[in-house]
Design a protein that fits this description.
The complex is a heterodimer of chains A (190) and B (93). By secondary structure, chain A is an all-alpha fold. Helices cover 79% and strands 0% of the residues of chain A. The chains are: A mainly alpha (190), B mainly alpha (93).
Chain lengths: 190, 93
């Protein structure tokens, strides 16, 4: 964004970016595993996909992307030395995370009600395991956002101490980024 | 308006533009998949995964601020996302 210092540096520090790299590599392996398994039995994967609701996946994508936008606005507010606005944006982003989890939980409840589990078949193993892992990231990110909002409101951050705010936002965007691939892979690509 | 305020406005505008593009692309990929029915379609998979990698680049560049980060990180992220998408498209072909 245009407001960063011209001296190039990683927002949030190097450690969070090493974590991002590890996470992207890990989820990338799961994505490739999903696509390779689908290639060996496309009929099984098609049958599984037909039981999902692409619209709820699309709505959840909009929810997460909106949460990402709110978190990015929070970072800008922190740089502008506006702690109350920083906290407000982060709380709003956390609410997006909570809405995502509510919608996803509804989908999980339908899947479990149909008697489906991790051991049903390869499609459902990947669906439940990978989206479940992503769900845990959303849960953790929501907690980080709320904790950071609380601290921001108390004046713990600001333009001279932006690392925590930026690192939490980067983590939240990582959650977005993983879902941006999960949505087409699991719901749309056939 | 001082320099900081001007920069802040550019940042806010860029974020909003990025969010709008991301939402439009999400809607587009949903419509493409819906219009193509339930059978296996390699072209649909290629399109929706292609849209996904564009969205991922936008998130990386704008939301995660890689456009202002050391070049090596932006290049590494971009290369990885393109490699991953290429692999996925090949497996769906």
């Amino acid at each position: 964004m245009a407001t960063r210092d011209p001296a190039r540096e990683l927002p949030g520090g190097t450690v969070i970016w090493l974590f991002v790299a590890i996470e992207l590599l890990t989820f990338g392996l799961f994505f490739v595993g999903f696509a390779a398994s689908r290639r060996s039995d496309p009929a099984l994967f098609l049958a599984g996909q037909e039981q999902l609701h692409p619209l709820s996946g699309a709505i959840n994508t909009v929810v997460l992307l909106s949460g990402g936008w709110l978190a990015a606005r929070g970072v800008l507010a922190n740089r502008a030395d506006a702690p109350r606005r920083t906290a407000g944006f982060f709380v709003a982003a956390a609410l997006a995370g909570i809405l995502f989890m509510v919608i996803k939980s509804h989908e999980y409840s339908e899947v479990f009600a149909a008697g489906i589990s991790l051991s049903t078949n390869t499609f459902w193993f990947f669906y439940l395991f990978v989206t479940g892992l992503h769900f845990l990231h959303v849960l953790a990110g929501t907690g980080f956002l709320l904790g950071t909002a609380w601290q921001a409101k108390r004046g713990a951050y600001g333009p001279d101490a932006p690392s925590t705010v930026e690192a939490v936002a980067v983590f939240w965007h990582l959650v977005d980024l993983i879902w941006v691939f999960l949505f087409p892979l699991i719901y749309l690509a056939r | 308006m001082n320099v900081r305020e001007s920069g802040k406005r550019r940042g806010v505008g860029l974020l909003l533009l990025c969010w709008i593009i991301l939402i439009v692309l999400t809607f587009a990929s949903f419509r493409i998949a819906e219009a193509d029915g339930n059978g296996p379609r390699a072209a649909t998979a290629t399109l929706v995964l292609g849209i996904a990698v564009i969205k991922a680049h936008l998130i990386g560049a704008v939301y995660m601020e890689l456009m202002d980060a050391p070049r090596v990180w932006a290049v590494a992220m971009s290369a990885y996302l393109l490699l991953l998408t290429g692999l996925l498209v090949a497996l769906f072909a």
